[in-house]
């Protein structure tokens, strides 16, 4: 008896579906009208013709599926197509899901009208079909949502890749025209204050996107990393303080530039600043405070010639290490023998004796401004440049 009743219900559903197919244009009109009236996203993102055609086809495919064997049904495949297209149109997923719930209501009401018009005494039997109809539409909605999310992730990945490619082009100084598009995509000012940081972070290091109220956009390179930093009203002192806890090696900080289009210049200056670090210990180099050293690394041949000419006798002396350390401390401590002695753990008279030997060997005195400049640049050359 149960199998007979089930067969009668399936026949009722197929008969009603066949008749409902004739009413699809009217159902489409109702569904599109109600959808656009209740959801602004459809009015903004989906042209009316597209909305009507896709709804008409969706109803036709969905209702036809009731008449077909499982292996011939196209309703789920079509729902996946709709989900992908709506993701491409930028329609919110919630709007797409509401449209399927509305379609379920309109379709079910259509079945009730059909049976009520032709076989009202079978309305109780139709109620036993409700689960089948609603389950079929729910299955379509799930398929559409899954396809939507996959396509959205694909589009987001491509968009991010494109934005990063444009940002890289700005860092390479190749695409000033992209500055406005990058600014809009990242919600950053095109003409704001920016700096570039170059550094080497551990492989597992956390790379924060917000540090000290500044926005960091990290980009990978083969031998180092760099960050485009949206400074806001922060200073370079604030920036150096902010990155201190995450820098375990050397880092270079560019001067502030006024806009994304100047990132290429900032990147070069940050890399130059990092080249002024000797690498022996963690160090953050601001270019604006390393200009003499930057000149040295920019002209290595000339700098080596300067070092040989100015410090040649010291470099060939058995006391090379002691004398260079003393000279460096003397210049750093502005000629204070007491401070130098404290740094080098020796007597102040020892400091004076070493400085005198340096003067005799080089013919230059650290107390004379021009000689001090030459000695300082020569020291930078010895510290930063490998032996030829």
The string of secondary-structure elements, in order, is HHHHHHHHHEEEEHEEHEHHHHHH
Q: Indicate the structural class.
A: alpha+beta
- Low-confidence region ranges: none
User: Average pLDDT across residues?
Assistant: 87
How is the secondary structure organized here?
Blueprint: H1 2-21, H2 24-38, H3 40-45, H4 48-66, H5 75-89, H6 93-118, H7 123-127, H8 130-171, H9 179-186, E1 193-199, E2 210-211, E3 214-220, E4 225-230, H10 236-243, E5 250-253, E6 257-258, H11 263-275, E7 283-286, H12 291-298, H13 300-315, H14 320-332, H15 337-344, H16 348-362, H17 369-384
Parallel strand pairs: 5-7
Antiparallel strand pairs: 1-4, 1-5, 1-6, 2-3, 3-4
Organism: Planotetraspora thailandica
Domain PucR C-terminal helix-turn-helix: 323-381
InterPro entries: CdaR-like_regulators, PucR_C-HTH_dom, PucR_C-HTH_sf, RsbRD_N_dom
Provide an overview of this structure.
- It is built from 17 helices and seven strands.
- It is α+β, with helices and mostly antiparallel strands.
- Strands 1, 2, 3, 4, 5, 6 and 7 form a seven-stranded mixed sheet that branches.
- Helix 1 (2-21) runs antiparallel to helix 4 (48-66) and helix 5 (75-89) packs parallel to helix 8 (130-171).
- InterPro entries: CdaR-like_regulators, PucR_C-HTH_dom, PucR_C-HTH_sf, RsbRD_N_dom.
- This is PucR family transcriptional regulator.
């Amino acid at each position: 008896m149960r199998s007979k009743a089930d067969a009668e219900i399936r026949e009722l559903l197929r008969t009603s579906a066949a008749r409902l197919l004739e009413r699809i244009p009217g159902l489409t009109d109702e569904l599109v009208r109600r959808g656009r009236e209740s959801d602004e996203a459809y009015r903004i993102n989906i042209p009316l013709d597209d909305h009507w055609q896709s709804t008409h086809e969706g109803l036709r495919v969905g209702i036809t599926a009731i008449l077909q064997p499982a292996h011939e049904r196209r309703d789920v495949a079509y729902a996946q197509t709709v989900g992908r297209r709506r993701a491409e149109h930028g329609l919110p997923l919630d709007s797409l899901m509401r449209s399927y719930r509305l379609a379920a209501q309109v379709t079910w009401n259509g079945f009730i009208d059909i049976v009520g018009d032709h076989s009202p005494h079978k309305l109780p039997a139709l109620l036993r079909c409700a689960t089948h109809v609603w389950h079929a539409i729910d299955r379509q909605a799930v398929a559409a949502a899954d396809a939507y999310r996959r396509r959205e992730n694909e589009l987001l990945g491509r968009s991010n890749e494109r934005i990063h490619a444009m940002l890289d082009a700005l860092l390479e100084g190749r695409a000033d025209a992209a500055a406005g598009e990058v600014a809009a995509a990242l919600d950053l000012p095109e003409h704001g204050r920016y700096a570039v940081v170059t550094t080497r972070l551990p492989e597992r290091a956390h790379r924060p996107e917000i540090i000290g109220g500044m926005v960091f956009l990290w980009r990978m390179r083969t031998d180092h990393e760099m960050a485009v930093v949206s400074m806001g009203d922060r200073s370079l002192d604030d920036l150096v303080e902010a990155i201190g806890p995450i820098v375990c090696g050397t880092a270079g900080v560019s001067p502030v530039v006024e806009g994304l289009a100047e990132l290429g210049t900032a990147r070069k200056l940050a890399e130059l600043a990092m080249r002024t670090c000797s690498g022996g210990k963690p160090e953050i180099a601001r270019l604006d405070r390393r200009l003499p050293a930057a000149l040295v690394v920019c002209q290595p041949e000339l700098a080596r010639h300067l070092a040989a000419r100015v410090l040649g006798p010291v470099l060939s002396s058995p006391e090379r290490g002691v004398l260079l350390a003393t000279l460096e401390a003397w210049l750093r401590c502005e000629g204070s023998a007491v401070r130098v002695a404290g740094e080098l753990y020796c007597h102040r008279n020892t400091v004076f004796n070493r400085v005198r030997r340096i003067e005799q060997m080089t013919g230059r005195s650290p107390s004379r401004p021009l000689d001090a400049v030459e000695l300082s640049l020569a020291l930078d050359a010895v510290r930063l440049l490998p032996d030829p």
